[in-house]
Design brief:
This protein is mainly α and about 70 residues long. It contains 3 helices and no strands.
Length: about 70
């Protein structure tokens, strides 16, 4: 069970770091204040749709957990 929590944590950390990297690139490419605000709005709206992604992540974590049961 502890290993499964570690895998879930690693997946969440990887997902966060990827999102952070993408956000940094998008913000760095904004040349005007208007473009910067547009990127911020897009990122905030994507956060609103995230619970669906978290549900699919939880379902994949359960799958990983089941495969780790010794037979």
């Amino acid at each position: 069970m502890r290993l499964c929590k570690s895998i879930a944590l690693d997946q969440n950390i990887a997902k966060f770091l990827q999102a952070k990297s993408t956000a940094n690139v998008m913000l760095a490419q904004a040349k005007t204040k208007k473009e910067y605000k547009k990127v911020i709005v897009e990122m905030l709206s994507s956060i609103d749709s995230e619970p669906e992604d978290e549900k699919s992540l939880a379902s994949s974590i359960k799958t990983v957990d089941l495969t780790m049961i010794p037979t």
